[in-house]
Amino acid sequence: MADYDVIVIGAGPGGYVAAIRAAQLGLKTACVEKYPTLGGTCLNIGCIPSKALLQSSHLYEETSEHLGPHGIKVGKVELDLAAMMARKDKVVGENTRGIEFLFRKNKIDWLKGAGRILGPGKVEVAAKEGTATHGAKHVVIATGSDVTPLPGVAIDEKQIVSSTGALALASVPKSLVVIGAGVIGLELGSVWKRLGVDVQVVEFLDRALPQHDGEVSRQAQRILERQGLKFSLSTKVTGAKTTKSGVTLTLEPAKGGQAQEIKADIVLVSIGRRPYTEGLGLKEAGVAVDARGFIQTDGHFRTNMPGIWAIGDAIGGLMLAHKAEDEGVAAAELIAGQAGHVNYDAVPSVVYTWPEIAHVGKTEEQLKAEGTAYKVGKFPFTANARARANNDTEGFVKFLADAKTDRVLGCHIIGPSAGDLIAEVALGVEFVAAAEDFARTCHAHPSLAEAVKEAALGVAGRSIHI
Asked: Which domain holds residue 368?
């Protein structure tokens, strides 16, 4: 007989949530995790520590440079990096211990060690103390993703760092080169720029945030440039040399041309992430993967092998913690015989720079490529009373709605608290809302959320305050 109904491999957001939901449904559940703390990349070396540093660095910059208009005078502001890092570590510890509590509460066994699939229904767990084999009716692979390496630029987590190293620098460098103008690069670049570092961002493509709506990414770059970040677009990095005094990078135009060199104290490689499936025994177990290493599923998280499921970054798509969480819930419910489902059109995405950048649904570029007729409604935060009161008026809200049905196809926000404002729109997309539904919903005054209503009104040319 199987030891468990469900064994989840990986205790990141997808894995631990899958385990909790399976346990809630009455399934005897275990979760395999080889690292000393639960929570995966997100809680330990990703989402949570980066947001802690983003908040701390934002407060440092606000106090240093932006309190004057509020009538607040302060003396010389000093940075205590050690204390800032200690607070970040404390936040991480509180979150990871919280997952341990939830495992105990839901009677989930933590199988400490590295998991390997021996075949349907069998999982080997290798720990320092030895190796054990456990049986399970169902195995859920939730091993997440790892940093994508860049040929010619070897990460040592000292001078050439991944996001992991960039979250734990022992001192403030004079200069930082960020390779990759995506979410991670811009967030961590913002952290260190606020703390006084000269930051240059190198991007292979022709714009920052290339996966975002073009109008939003262009506005974001302009704002970040005003904040002091420098951008080298359509540029590739072909090599790196480290010395005691720093790193020398070799750059070339993306389309080819004359090479040049730039120097920096620290280089951050943030060109994306790849599925982490090393040592899982997928090939030996017969589990199919695609050319890029992502585990293939049937669209309902089932692999080609009976009783083996996969979720999260390991199966591709949007590589987001909350997407993995929803997939973990859906997979557990399907295993229990229920109707688990994830609506990927309603999954929001957020960049936690300041201002924040958030979106749900399609971009204008995607709609044009599809040949979909659409209308646009926009509203700037400069015309929002609460944003003015807060002295925080950068950005806008942008709705994209079907030209015939008025159904919301996408929404893009760059501005204060965009990550919170997008939740309203995501809920609307889930319920197939029209722009008029947002426009006719009463929003509190004065609030930033009024900008969402005004942008929805703008789809029909009815915005009141512009």
From this structure: 346-459
